[in-house]
Structures are given as C-alpha cells and as structure tokens.
Amino acid sequence: MEQQIRQINLEDGMPTVQQALARLQLEVRLARRQGVWVLKIIHGFGSTGNGGKIRVAVRRELPVLQRRGQIRFFVPGEKLTIFEEDTRRLLQICPAFRRDRDIDRHNNGITVVVLRDRKG
Fold first, then answer.
1. Of 50, 40, 100, whose CA–CA distance to 76 is shortest?
2. 109 to each of 28, 30, 42, 53, 65, how far by Cα in Å?
3. Spatial separation of the C-alpha atoms in residues 44 and 86, rounded to whole Å
4. Which of 114, 69, 65 lies closest to 89, judged by CA?
5. Distance separating alpha carbons of residues 44 and 30, to the nearest angstrom
6. Using CA atoms in the order 81, 99, 40, 119, what is the torsion angle rounded to 10 degrees?
7. What is the reported pLDDT for 39?
8. CATH class of 5-114
9. Does residue 114 contact residue 94 with C-beta atoms inside 8 Å?
C-alpha cells in the first residue's frame, strides 16, 4: 500500500462549527476507505488569533475519534516539530511528511491526523 497524505480545509465555504465537524467525520471515513495514511486539517485559528470555534471543536472531537479507533493519533500544528515525540512518530510512519511546509512553523491553524500506521 502506498502511503498517502491528504489535505482538507474545514474553513472552506465559511461553514458553521456543526458543518465543519460533519465534514471532518466524513473526510476521516473516506480517507480510511481510500487508504490515506495522514490527513492535514486546516481549521484556522480564528480571525482574532485567539482561538477559533472550528479549531476548538476539531481539537475536542479528535480525542473522541481516537478513542473510537477511527484515528491513531493527531499532532496539533503548534507541536509539529521534530522535538515532539508525536511528530517523530508521524515522520516514522509517513516519511513523505518531512517535506511539508508546516514542520517547525508552530502553525496552530492546522492539525495533522494519522489514520493508520505501517501495519495498517
């Protein structure tokens, strides 16, 4: 199986929080079926830079999806640095992600979700 990375922009079209969460769940299901290994989720960080409703909701939903076994783990953009253990795990599972422009940029407007590991 070829490892794949997919990017989704949950801000696209200015959705409500509920619409963005529904799209997140749909995208996770589709990506898993299609053999995607990693989802890079763009959720923004709010126009004031102090949060953002979609970002907060996504970050609350991801642990739920993890407990259900729908995702393996996730790395918030601000922790997407080689000095973080989860980022090193991500890069071990998906070495192609090393070329991503957000590595070491502390971008809290994104979250990277790992859907599967090398074992599937």
1. 40
2. 18, 22, 6, 11, 19
3. 21
4. 114
5. 22
6. -90
7. 97
8. alpha beta
9. yes
Place of tokens 């990017």: 7
pLDDT at 1: 37
Mapping DSSP onto H, E and C, the string for the chain reads CCCCEEEEECCCCCCCHHHHHHHHHHHHHHHHHCCCCEEEEECCCCCCCCCCHHHHHHHHHHHHHHHCCCCCEEEEHHHCCCCCHHHHHHHHHCHHHHHCCCCCCCCCCEEEEECCCCCC
Which residues are 40's β-sheet partners? 7, 112
- Give how far Cα 84 sits from Cα of 16, 67, 74, 91, Å: 32, 21, 12, 11
**Taking a C-beta distance cutoff of 8 angstroms, is the pair 45, 52 a contact?**
yes
**Residues in a beta bridge with 113:** 39, 74
pLDDT-flagged residues of the chain (< 70): 1-3, 46-51, 118-120
